[in-house]
Structures are given as C-alpha cells and as structure tokens.
Amino acid sequence: MQSGYVLKSAVRPEQEDLEKINHLTRRPFTAEEVYTFKVALCDNEIDRDGERFSTQALYGLADLFLGKSGIFNHSMDAKTQSARIYDTAVETDQSRRTSCGEPYTRLVAKAYMPRTQGNEDLILEIDSGIKKEVSVGCSMGSAVCSVCGTDRREKDCGHRSGEIYGGQPCCTILGDPQDAYEWSFVAVPAQREAGVTKSCHTQESSVKAEDAEWGRRWKARMLQETAKYFSITCPGVTAQTAQRMAEGLSPEELEQVVKGLRRAAGSVVPLQPQLAVEKQRTGADESFRI
Ligand SMILES: [Zn+2]
Q: What is the rounded (10 degree) CA torsion for 218, 224, 225, 228?
C-alpha cells in the first residue's frame, strides 16, 4: 500500500468528464447528479519503506486503475459508499527532481460518486479535507535493488535501502504492475498535505496524525464511542478499560472496532433513531450503486 491524497474536490464535471463517467454507469448521469474529485494516487518518490515505483510503472498503473472503485473506511455502511475512477493521467513536473534525480512524476486520477442523501456527509468530509489521504493497493511484478538490480524478493544483495551508494540513496524499485486492486480513503484528518506519507505496496499504511487538531478530535470521538458501545455490549468492561484497549489501534482498526461494536450494541439495545436513519440511507443508496 502506498498513499496519496486528494488534490481537488468538488470539481464540476465537464462534458468530457461526463462522457467518460457515463461509459461506466448503468444509466447516464447529469453534471448535477455526480460529485467528482481528483486524487494523486502514487508517485516515483522513495517512500518511508525505502521503495518507489519506477516512472514506467506509473503508466502501467494508470491503465490498471481505470474503473477501479475506491472504498471509504467510514462509520456508515461501506458497501454503499464508493467512488470510481473514470480517468487517469501521469503528470511529470520537470522542475522538481526526486531524491533519485528523476523528474517528479505522479499518477493522478479523477473519480466520481453519485450524489445521494446517503453520501452527503462523506462529500462534506472530502470537501472539508477530513478525508484527504488515499492509499492504493496493487500487485507489482518486480522489486529490484536500485544499485545492482537484484530481485529483492529472491535474495539479499547486501545493499541497504536509505544508504548512499555512488551519491544516490539505495531503494527498492517497484516495476511491472500486474494488477491494481483498490484505493481507499484513509480516515486521517487534514493538515497532512505537506507531509504525505507512503508505505510499501504490500502493507496497509499506518498513518498517525496526532499533531493535527482534527486527528485528535476524531480519535477522541472514536474512543468515546468505543467506550460507550463496550458498556452496552460487555457490561463488565469499564469505559476506562475499553478506551485503553482502543488507544493503540491504527485509525483503520479503530474504525473497524467502532463499526463492529456499534452493530453489536444495536442488537443488544435497539438504537432506534440512528439505526432507522442508517437503514433508510442504505436502502436509498441501493439504486445508485456504482
Ligand atoms: Zn543491490
């Protein structure tokens, strides 16, 4: 998994965009019916795991990501909340060099989602920058040492990622894209544009933004919810214990836990108003599934 970020949200689709979108939909959508946004999926810079995509690989990934759905790690029903990539492009900034000395190049995608009552909140979150980070999952055919070209999956050549050889940092170059599985929004709040983090393609990126006010608030709310639902589903566990258990989790894990607990709590004590709304939204969304 490598992660990128939302570049631009709430872009009104042009005719050209609509045509591309409508190639993917069951029925034609109008500009008013879709929400479109632009995301940087990945680039050719070395990530924190000492890996990078070859520039050539970005072109291959551009084709593979077309039509792929993005998942939102969201507290509501994830099934009904997805966006789809309808256009991709590889952009090169000749004025900027990567740490390997190549022109900075990134894979940019345009995605759409139908505007429905069910995803109003989500659209708001993207617009406000709360859901800014995007991680991608893909399968790469090769992972070679940048110094000697040895396949790092086969054997250890002795070169260490991050160390300098002949004036250049050593890294693992990922090439030969085989498949692109998914891309997803990481529920880590804004303030991270400056320091976009990436991790290797085989692991979920674990991103921490404790320094961001939004991050703190989001986490505090999730911890509160964890404690609340724990007290309903497991009456013997104190709020303090539940909070302490949840504190070390990654944002994705914490969301998973809250979601699971909420569902479990709902079956113990019917959380009427909230469940009723969620159900209704889920039902309404079904016809707009993309
Ligand atoms: Zn090597």
A: 180
